[in-house]
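Researcher: Let's do a round of design. I'm pasting the C-alpha cells now; please hold your answer until I've finished.
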C-alpha cells in the first residue's frame, strides 16, 4: 500500500468512526475515539473503551492510566506517535461499564479494518477485555507477558494501566512486561525477513 493510500484509508475510517451511529453508545458519547499514532514501529496497543477524559478529548489513553502508560513507554524510548493505540469499542460505555455484546459486534469491524491498514507485527492487549477479544479462552493472569502467535502476528497480553494505578504490584508487573516490547519488535522483524 502506498503512503498516500495509507493516509486516505485511515482518514476515511476515522471520519466513519467519528460520525458512527451503529450502536446505542453514540447516544451518550461526547466524542468517539478512533485511535492515535502512526503505528510506524509495527506496534499496536488495544484497550477496552474510552473513559471520561477520552470521551471529552476524542483521544485514547489521555487520563491517569494514559499518563502511566506514557511514562512506562518512555522508559523503553517509545513515544505515542511511534505506535497506534486504540480500543475495542470507540465510544465510551456509560459509567465505564463493560461493552455489551451487540456494541462489540457493531464496533469490532472498525478494529479489524485498523489492523488490516496498520498491519502491526505486535499487538499488545491492555487488560482482560482486550485480551478476550483476541483470545476468548485465556485469562489475563495465565497469559500476561507471553507472546502468542495469531494470524501471523504476535499478541502480547499485559495488565491494563488502570490496574497499575490501583495496585503498585500490578504497576511493576506491567513495567516488566512492557520492557520486553523492544526485543519482541526486533525478533518479529527478523522472523518476517526469513
Ligand atoms: S461504539 Fe462503535 S459501533 Fe457504536 S456508535 Fe461508537 S463507533 Fe459506532
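Researcher: That's everything. Go ahead.
Model: Designed sequence:
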Amino acid at each position: 500500500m502506498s503512503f498516500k493510500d495509507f493516509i486516505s484509508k485511515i482518514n476515511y475510517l476515522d471520519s466513519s468512526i467519528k460520525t458512527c451511529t451503529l450502536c446505542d453508545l453514540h447516544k451518550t458519547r461526547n466524542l468517539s475515539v478512533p485511535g492515535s499514532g502512526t503505528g510506524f514501529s509495527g506496534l499496536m496497543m488495544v484497550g477496552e473503551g474510552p473513559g471520561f477524559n477520552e470521551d471529552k478529548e476524542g483521544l485514547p489513553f489521555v487520563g491517569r492510566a494514559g499518563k502511566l502508560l506514557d511514562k512506562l513507554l518512555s522508559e523503553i524510548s517509545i513515544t505515542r506517535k511511534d505506535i497506534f493505540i486504540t480500543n475495542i469499542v470507540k465510544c465510551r460505555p456509560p459509567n465505564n461499564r463493560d461493552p455489551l455484546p451487540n456494541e462489540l459486534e457493531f464496533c469490532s469491524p472498525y478494529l479489524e479494518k485498523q489492523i488490516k491498514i496498520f498491519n502491526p507485527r505486535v499487538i499488545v492487549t491492555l487488560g482482560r477485555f482486550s485480551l478476550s477479544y483476541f483470545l476468548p479462552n485465556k485469562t489475563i493472569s495465565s497469559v500476561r507477558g507471553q507472546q502468542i502467535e495469531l494470524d501471523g502476528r504476535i499478541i502480547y497480553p499485559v495488565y491494563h494501566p488502570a490496574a497499575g494505578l490501583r495496585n503498585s504490584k500490578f504497576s511493576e508487573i506491567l513495567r516488566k512486561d512492557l520492557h520486553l516490547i523492544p526485543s519482541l519488535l526486533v525478533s518479529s522483524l527478523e522472523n518476517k525477513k526469513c
